[in-house]
Amino acid sequence: MNIDFSTKLAKNIEEVEIRTAVLDTVNALCESARDIAKICAKGPLEAAFGDVAGTENSDGDSQKALDVRSDEIITAALKTVPVAYYASEERDDIITLEHGLPLAVASDPLDGSSNIDTNVSIGTIFAIFPAVENDPEASFLRKGSEQVAGGFFVYGPQTSLVITTGDGTELYILDWMSGKFKLAVPAMRISESAHEFAINASNFNHWHPPVRAYIEDAMKGADGPMGKKQGMRWVGSLVADANRILMRGGLFMYPADDRKGYEAGRLRILYEAHPVAFVIEQAGGKASNGTDRILDIKQDSLHERVPFVFGSVDMVEQVGEYHINAV
Ligand code: F6P
Questions:
Q1: Is residue 146's pLDDT more than 80?
Q2: Does the model's pTM come out above 0.90?
Q3: Cβ within 8 Å of residue 259, ≥6 positions away
């Protein structure tokens, strides 16, 4: 075992075959994460660590050597557990591992890869669905609320796992001495009295009016309509920004904007928004596309993007009000 599971995780999954398969799969992902974390820790000492692999993934993002390596590690691990289909942000198409097995796993194998060279936290995101028999596409093109498990690993000062199976969000930390992920926080709760927002402010001139209005008002601090001084943070790795919000609250936004290719923002529904929204909601937070709940969105294609807003409930709701009032 690569993880000391809490007595609670996956107990809410009624079907025993699915429950066991989820735990096996998470255990395999923990092994992959430990391997990826080891490579990350070596940084430039590892050959071709952050070099551009000379290719682009299906979203047009440049691929780094570590993106490709992480994807290979996860693919190999998933072949050992009851997973029928694997969809990766790094691949154009779904891989069929073995028809007839109970699960389908989607992953962004190395999130935040533009930060690889800079020794800033990066991670692996995953979403686990019950497989639809003999139908790889239908296994992934569905609402986020149909996930049986979702979460992410962070490769930072600590190597950690944030995970939910739909009954609360747990935080595990890798204990390098034993090689096991150990439970650190059994029930994460997102603070409601938060005063930090995260957005790539360099896109200000491209934002649509409601987002611009919200950020302008937030910047007015205690004298503005929000009546409080707010701080700004932007790591540029979704996993690191999400982890901070889980630990101390706040707001994350990657909105749609008027740049070509950003008509639905930057982040992918399947590989990023669905699993992050799942852990955020299960920790008492909220996740939307500005107006609608992320987990209710069903994408039409594998690599579809979505404007993504998540964090403390009141902040996400306030962003929603700016959108509604702008109509
Ligand atoms: O999807 C990859 C990603 O690196 C996320 O981890 C992060 O939140 C976002 O893109 C950063 O985008 P930008 O470089 O446009 O700020």
A1: yes
A2: yes
A3: 203, 206
